[in-house]
Amino acid sequence: MTAIAQLVSFIGGLNPVHVLLCAVIFLVSLWWYRGSKDLPPGPWGVPVLGLLPRVFLELRRGSHPHLLFAEYAKRYGPVFRARVVNKMLVVLNDHESVKQAFLNPNLSDRPPNTLIAEAMKSEGVAMASGEPWKDLRRFSLTVLRSLGVGKSSFEEQIGQEAKALVEEMTSYDGKPFDPKYLFGNAVGNVICSAVLGKRYEYSDEEFTHLMHVIHKIVNYIGSGGLLNAVPVMRVFQRNKTDVYASFGEFRSFLLSVIASHQSEMDPENPRDFIDVFLNEIDTNEKAASNGSVKANGSVRTNGFTPGKANPPNGLPPTRHPYLTNKNIVGTIANLFAAGMETTATTLHWALLYMAVYPEIQQRVQAEIDAVVGRNRLPRMADKQELNFTQAVMLEVQRIAVVTPFGFPHAAAADTELMGFRIPKGSLLVSNFWALFRDPKVWPEPDKFKPERFLDKDGLAFKPEELIPFSTGRRSCIGEHLAKMELFVFFSFFLHQFTFKKPDDAPPYTFESRVGLTRYPVQYQICAIQRN
């Protein structure tokens, strides 16, 4: 019997359903292979589900996707692809690929139908794409700058909150406390002063509860934000009721703040970000009622140019046509939650490293004492002389990797990156964990070595490969503010206290929990006041 006859006989003895299934898998595999020659290399995964089972397996083992992807990068190179159900991920694992991708206008969108936008019923500046995103980002940056955020004039606002936090930590009188939510409250108050126009006392139960709600949301979104970016993954999400309930609480809080602003605001004297946003919405509505703005948000000129101070025919200027009641909640949520969670978590890690490395803590204190003295608190003007202090904070940002993946980008069109074709609709994931642990850039990457950020003259410097606020067109809006907060809070802490592990506490660990951010496992610490 010939080989062909044997094969026909074998197939004839199979169940027809099995034959059909094998044929479908073969055709899908053939299509995938033929269409993937110019794509980045990568693991095949399970048919239909792709890498989803492997990701869930790693999570059940207590590992995290950024570690799995870093291992794949060693095998397939710094740019590789992976499929999660119906979405192609292109994972970027070195600085050059991230820089090239995030400078490319075709790779600056966000995935459609994100969990955050769905649950908040509003996209906002962080989740929007295309012209709406450009408009919201321009507006947000302009208004925050006009309010002084990130400028030297805003230092007093940060310093006042840092003093309030120091007083709160002093009240523990050297006894153990958990710093996590204190930091969230303090950093939240800084952004609240500019966005919401008020601060909240550390004893405020409503605001403390909100901190817990935001932290739950960060956990729900999951490592790398894949649950946020890939809708089909939500089918496998447990506690869906709790997820949407937490988002609902956050949204209700913001809506109540907006309603309060609407009832109290003076359009001629806006107090904060919300007031300015509401003014722009009012301008757009008036322009729309006069036929100058289309329903989809694009502008009809009708004889005037948007943004001009005195348009002809009496119509109001439409400078930001995409500012609407629909995206105000999302934008405020983005600024508030993202600005609070990442900075507070970085400070959380910083205290842990100071307690574990007392010799480094003492060296920071000695430098601050030499430059600042004991009769006043540090100022931003001292920063240029506090080189080791700067180096320590840079090393904390590198080694802690507070956002292992950041937010995924989406390809708006077929694009070439690093010699590979990136199909339209692909999700681009930046693996900052791999970037900040790259031994070619950071020798002994797992060691806490602030000296790596000091040059031969002992001056602090930041290599371009360190991008904790991401890079390119969608880099963090609050980067300048966050840098000021980290310096002011950290220098105040080390000027006023020595941080130690409680005597009866278990040994400290650098193990982490990973949601959208990577944060330390819960720990208690003692803040011993310095003379």
Structural account:
Residues 288-304 have a biased composition (Polar residues). This is Cytochrome P450. Its cofactor is heme. By secondary structure, the protein is an alpha+beta fold. The protein has two domains: 1-34; 116-529, Orthogonal Bundle (Cytochrome p450). It contains 19 helices and ten strands. A hairpin with a 2-residue loop joins strand 1 and strand 2 (87-92). It is globular, with a radius of gyration of 26 Å.
Spatial strand order of the main sheet: 1-2-6-3
Q: Main β-sheet: number of strands, strand sense, barrel status?
A: 4 strands, mixed
CATH architecture tag of the largest domain: Orthogonal Bundle
**Alpha-carbon Rg, integer:** 26 Å
Binding site for heme: 476
GO molecular function: heme binding; iron ion binding; monooxygenase activity; oxidoreductase activity, acting on paired donors, with incorporation or reduction of molecular oxygen
Transmembrane segments: 7-33
Cofactor: heme
For the structure shown, list the relevant keywords:
alpha+beta, two-stranded antiparallel sheet, Cytochrome p450, 2 domains, four-stranded mixed beta sheet, 531 residues, 19 helices
Outline the fold blueprint.
Layout: H1 3-12, H2 16-34, H3 52-60, H4 65-76, E1 79-84, E2 87-92, H5 95-103, H6 115-120, H7 124-127, H8 130-146, H9 155-170, H10 180-195, H11 205-221, H12 226-229, H13 240-264, H14 273-289, H15 325-356, H16 358-372, H17 387-400, E3 409-410, E4 415-417, E5 420-422, E6 427-430, H18 432-436, H19 479-496, E7 497-500, E8 512-514, E9 518-520, E10 526-529
Parallel strand pairs: 2-6
Antiparallel strand pairs: 1-2, 3-6, 4-5, 7-10, 8-9
